[in-house]
Amino acid sequence: MRRFTAGGEIPRRWYNALPDLPKPLDLPLHPVEKRPVKPENLEPLFAKALIEQEFSEARWIEIPEDILEVYALWRPTPLYRAYGLEKFLNTPAKIYYKYEGASPAGSHKPNTAVAQAYYNAKEGIKRLTTETGAGQWGAALAFATQFFGIKCTVYMVRVSYNQKPYRRTMMELWGAEVFPSPSSRTKSGKSILEKDPDNPGSLGIAISEAVEDAATNPDTHYSLGSVLNHVLLHQTVIGLEAKAQLEELGEYPDVVIGCCGGGSNFGGIALPFYADKAVGKKVRLVAVEPKACPTLTKGIFAYDFGDTAGLTPLLKMFTLGHNFVPPSIHAGGLRYHGDAPIVSLLVKEGIVEPVAYSQTEVFEAALTFARTEGFIPAPETAHAVKAAIDEALRAKEEKTPKTILFCFSGHGLLDLSAYDAFLKGELKDYELSREEILKSLSELEKLAIRR
After folding, report:
1. 445 pLDDT exceeds 80?
2. Of the candidates 269, 297, 295, the residue with the CA atom closest to the CA atom of residue 283
3. What is the CATH number assigned to the segment(s) 4-9+74-106+230-447?
4. How many CB atoms lie within 10 A of CB 400?
């Protein structure tokens, strides 16, 4: 029995979905003047090559050799057939998963972290600042910057900083400095702490701190691990490899699934298959999020800031409002208030199907997966596992063969405290009420942007 195929070589080009979208993305807007942002407006924060990629209409972008050399530490990643899970479910479906937990950082995040570190180093930048929630992104950037001689500063959402000390240790092992956010290092952090000294933090707050830090230091740029076009571009190595691996096996998926917080791993696995869907291929694309942060399923499609302090450009996306602070009880990541404009547009157009789950049913799915396949999924990844199981059970009920592909976006070996809480029955479900969502969205009315 062949459990997986390595799938040949690493892709030498990234796939850019922008020219294949059903309509052009609405342009980012200046945070103060509310006019369309020009590429040069972003130069204080991002490397010029990344800005070019953000707006590029080229369908394919070559991957530099220096990036491929680092990718080769773990890529191509294996594609597994979930025989154990299939047998347990007694389903006619075939379940495949792309194992991104093989990277040194344990998740898909280094695919873009390495690229961003490379382009910034090439431009002479000495330090990168960033935010991180559960810690996968912060760990990935800390890992990547060491290859190119750049320092790394990470603002980690305070609740995760306390819940996940070993992710912080990983970052520090790779040379990064890590601060709980909100912190007293920035004006935006101090302002929030003055109002609420026990604020648990959010990705929006941490982004404000990282952006402020970068904008006030000339040798420093900001690095984002999700949402932006160039980030999803770099992640398409996942889906491109998976397509080649499935083709080697004579397979093509009926449904492609990824968990979705900001959209990086979902975009990475799904966009190369969207390219087929855009020209008539029948394939479903399913984005899975938590009910504790239901951006795609209960948010609104509108212009919003990417951060709490309103320092970033405004993006047209599904959002819960930039002041949204997710509940601290939520054990996984996927806690960002907005979603990638590319993913948001595809959801708005009915091309991507969003679904939301509660955390206990997600952890139950992870437990089933760990006991049938052996790998322990990260809590974020477990959302995709739950959706894959549901698809397989639906195939069983309908007595219809189906090929399912999902992205195993990271392992859960640094999330065992969450699993410990689950096994003890201490994890509780939390679903945002309509009143809480409306309160969170109320700030958008003040923006009064009608485009």
Report:
1. no
2. 269
3. 3.40.50.1100
4. 11
Confirm if 82 and 384 have CB atoms less than 8 A apart.
no
Does residue 76 have a cis bond before it (omega within 30 degrees)? yes
Domain 110-224 has what CATH class? alpha beta
Q: Output the CA–CA distances (angstroms, integers) from residue 438 to 298, 433, 448, in the order listed.
A: 10, 9, 16
pLDDT of residue 448: 60
Asked whether the beta carbons of 307 and 205 are under 8 A apart, the reply is yes
- In sequence order, what are the beta bridge partners of 155? 131, 179
Domain spans of the chain? 4-9+74-106+230-447, 110-224
Residue of 381 and 8 predicted with greater confidence: 381
Per-residue buried b or exposed e for 188-226, using 16+ beta carbons within 10 Å of the residue's own CB? bbeebbeeeeebbbbbbbbbbbbbbbbeeeeebbbbbbb
Cβ-proximal residues to 278 (8 Å cutoff; 6+ apart), any chain: 20, 22
The contacts of residue 432 (CB under 8 Å, 6+ apart) are 291, 292, 293, 294, 298, 320
Q: Is the overall model pTM greater than 0.90, yes or no?
A: yes
Q: Which of 70, 77, 52 has the alpha carbon at shortest distance from 117?
A: 70
pLDDT over threshold 60, residue 358: yes
Six-digit token string for 116: 């961003």
The residue type found at 322 is H
